[in-house]
Design brief:
About 40% of the residues lie in helices and about 25% in strands. The protein is an alpha+beta fold and about 350 residues long. The strands form six sheets. It has a six-stranded mixed β-sheet with strand order 4-3-2-1-5-6, sandwiched between helices. Strands 7-10-11 form a three-stranded antiparallel β-sheet.
Length: about 350
C-alpha cells in the first residue's frame, strides 16, 4: 500500500513540474481516494500537491486512521474549511504558480481559485487512472467475478410471475453476500418490450412465460466497479426473430473481443461491433456506443464510440456491449468487461 501511495503522488508531482507549476489542488474525492489509496466520502477532503510534498485536508473522523500508514507520503490535517486551509498553506509556503483540475472543480471553487490567480491545469489524475495497475485490475477482476457468479446463480432462481424489482433485489443481495460493498449503478432488469429501452427503469412488471429477459448490473469491490449484461429467453419457445438478433449481437460482441487492439482509436473499436450489425440491416437499432472504460467510476474514458479519437492503451479496462433494440418487441445486449493486453482483450466478467 505504501508503494502505491508514494508512486501515485510522485507521478502527479512529475506532472506538476512538467507544467511548470509549484502546486496543484485536487478537489475530486475519487481522485483523492485513488492517490491516497484511502476511502474519503464525497465533499470530505481536498488535496494540495507540491513539487516535493502532499497535504491532505479532511474531516476529523478520517485523520487518525489516515495518519497510521500514509503520513510518510502525505500529511493530513483536520479541517472544516478545506479551501481556506489550502489557501493558508499556499500562502505559508509562498507558492506562486498553483494549478487546479478545471474539468472537475465546482463552479464556486473554480471561481475562488481563479480569483486567487490559480491556473487551469489538465486532469492529471484522470489520465493516471485510465491505465490500470496490477492492483486495480485485481480488484476489478474480483468485482467482475462476483457479478458473473451472481448471474449464474440468479438466472436459475428466476421464475414466471416474479417482478423486475424482485429479480433486482436478488441480484443485489447475492452480490453483497459475495463481498461486494454496493452496486456499481442502479440494476436494470427488463422483461419483454421493456428490454427495448437501453436504460429501462426496473419496475413492478411481472415475468411471463416465453419472453425475453435482459439484466444489466454490477458491483463495487474495494472501490472498483464491474459491469455485465446478459439477455436470454425465458421459456422453451424463443421467437425466430429473437434467436436471429441474439446470435447477431453475440457475433458482434465476439468480433470486438477478438480483434480490438492497443493503438486502435475508440472509433475503430466501435466499428468492430457496429459494422456487423449494420451489414445485417439492424444498424439503426444499435443506438449507443459500443463501450466505456470503468474503474473507480462506472463510466470513465476512453470510450469505445463513434466519436472517441483517443487511442486505446495497454491495461485500459472497458466494456464491450453491442445491442439491438426493437421498439415494442424486445432488446438484446451482451456486455462483458475486458482488460486490454499486448495480445488483445481478456474478458474479466467470467
Amino acid at each position: 500500500m505504501e508503494n502505491i501511495v508514494s508512486d501515485r503522488i510522485k507521478k502527479i508531482q512529475k506532472q506538476v513540474r512538467k507544467e511548470k507549476l509549484n502546486g496543484y489542488v485536487i478537489t475530486d474525492y475519487i481522485d483523492i481516494n485513488y492517490l491516497t489509496n484511502f476511502h474519503f466520502g464525497k465533499g470530505e477532503t481536498m488535496l494540495l500537491v507540491t513539487k516535493t510534498n502532499a497535504f491532505c485536508y479532511a474531516r476529523k473522523l478520517y485523520v487518525s486512521e489516515f495518519a497510521k500508514s500514509r503520513e510518510k507520503y502525505c500529511e493530513i490535517f483536520e479541517s472544516v474549511d478545506f479551501k481556506k486551509d489550502v489557501l493558508s498553506k499556499i500562502a505559508e509556503l509562498k507558492i506562486k504558480k498553483v494549478g487546479f483540475d478545471f474539468q472537475k472543480v465546482s463552479y464556486l471553487d473554480g471561481k475562488l481559485f481563479i480569483k486567487n490567480k490559480f491556473k487551469e491545469a489538465p486532469s492529471f489524475v484522470t489520465e493516471l487512472r485510465k491505465i490500470k495497475t496490477k492492483e486495480c485490475i485485481k480488484r476489478i477482476r474480483h468485482a467482475c467475478k462476483i457479478a458473473h457468479e451472481t448471474y449464474e446463480l440468479v438466472r436459475k432462481k428466476i421464475k414466471t410471475g416474479m417482478t423486475e424489482l424482485e429479480v433486482a433485489s436478488i441480484l443485489e443481495n447475492t452480490m453483497r453476500s459475495k463481498g461486494a460493498t454496493k452496486v456499481s449503478f442502479e440494476s436494470v432488469v427488463a422483461f419483454g418490450a421493456g428490454a427495448a429501452e437501453p436504460h429501462h427503469i426496473t419496475g413492478t412488471r411481472k415475468l411471463k412465460n416465453n419472453e425475453n429477459i435482459l439484466i444489466d448490473f454490477g458491483c463495487i469491490y474495494k472501490d472498483y466497479c464491474s459491469d455485465i449484461t446478459r439477455t436470454w429467453w425465458h421459456g422453451k419457445k424463443p421467437s425466430a426473430e429473437f434467436k436471429k438478433v441474439h446470435a447477431l449481437v453475440q457475433k458482434s460482441h465476439d468480433e470486438c473481443v477478438k480483434k480490438v487492439r492497443i493503438g486502435m482509436t475508440g472509433i475503430e473499436g466501435d466499428k468492430l461491433c457496429r459494422h456487423i450489425i449494420e451489414k445485417a440491416g439492424y444498424g439503426k437499432y444499435f443506438i449507443h456506443p459500443t463501450g466505456h472504460s470503468l474503474g473507480m467510476k462506472i463510466h470513465e474514458g476512453p470510450y469505445i464510440s463513434q466519436i472517441e479519437k483517443e487511442k486505446l492503451k495497454e491495461n485500459n479496462v472497458f466494456t464491450i456491449e453491442p445491442g439491438i433494440y426493437l421498439p415494442d418487441k424486445f432488446g438484446v445486449r451482451i456486455e462483458d468487461t475486458v482488460v486490454l493486453t499486448k495480445s488483445g482483450a481478456k474478458i474479466l466478467t467470467k
